[in-house]
Structures are given as C-alpha cells and as structure tokens.
C-alpha cells in the first residue's frame, strides 16, 4: 500500500522559511545567530503554561510522540482520544483529508 505524504503547516512554510533563513545568513548575520534570550524566555513561559494547563484538568495527558514520526503520533493520539477517562490531550495530532494538524488542546 502506497502511503500518501502528509501535508503539515511546517512543510507548507518550508519554502518561505528557507528563503528568509538564507537572506538572514547572507545579508543579516546578526539575525541568523539563533535563539536569543528573549525568544528562549517565550519558549520557557510556554512550557510553564503547558504544565499548568495540564495539571488544571485532572486526567489530561500531553502527547509526547516525536514530530518526526507522524504515523506513530496519530496512532497514539487516536488511542488517547478514544479513552473516555482522558478529558483532554495537549499537543494532540489528527489527520483530515491528508492534512496533519497539531492542536494545543483537544478535548
């Protein structure tokens, strides 16, 4: 059985992001240096908010599957969503018409 590749937001933006990255590397090297302290602080706050949100809903789970393996992620998240004892799945993935979506909270 031939598997159809999944379209994701990340894959659809690759062309745009690549050209921006290339421009940054060639013309604006100070912007291509990587994650600065400000961006890292935003990521850290998002992680804290994720943990707080997950603990606020008893029985909720966080989808731990690696984004590099979408089929595994889809199978694990489908199993979580089918479990009536799990009220919410954080960072859940699902597929519709060949488009892979990752959502913040799925309940």
SSE topology sketch:
Elements (H helix, E strand, L loop, with lengths): L8 H4 L1 H13 L10 H20 L4 E2 L7 H13 L6 E8 L2 E8 L1
Parallel strand pairs: 1-2
Antiparallel strand pairs: 2-3
Architecture overview:
It is a single chain. This protein is of the alpha+beta class and 107 residues long. The chain has a domain of 73 residues. Helices cover 47% and strands 17% of the residues. It has 4 helices and 3 strands, in the order H-H-H-E-H-E-E. Strands 1-2-3 form a 3-stranded mixed sheet. The mean pLDDT is 76.
Dominant shape: flat
Radius of gyration: 17 Å
Secondary-structure element sequence? Answer: HHHEHEE
Beta-strand fraction estimate:
15-25%
How many beta-strand elements?
A: 3
* Terminal Cα span: 32 Å
Short descriptors:
single chain, 107 residues, three-stranded mixed beta sheet, 47% helix
Offer a quick outline of the entry.
The protein is an alpha+beta fold. The protein is built from four helices and three strands; from the N terminus they run αααβαββ.
């Amino acid at each position: 059985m031939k598997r159809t590749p999944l379209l994701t937001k990340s894959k659809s933006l690759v062309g745009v992001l690549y050209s921006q990255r290339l421009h940054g590397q060639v013309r604006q090297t100070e912007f291509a240096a990587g994650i600065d302290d400000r961006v890292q602080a935003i990521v850290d706050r998002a992680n804290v908010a994720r943990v707080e949100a997950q603990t606020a809903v008893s029985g909720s789970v966080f989808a731990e599957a690696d984004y590099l393996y979408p089929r595994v992620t889809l199978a694990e998240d489908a199993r979580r969503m089918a479990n009536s004892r799990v009220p919410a799945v954080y960072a859940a993935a699902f597929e519709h018409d060949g488009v892979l979506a990752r959502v913040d909270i799925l309940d």
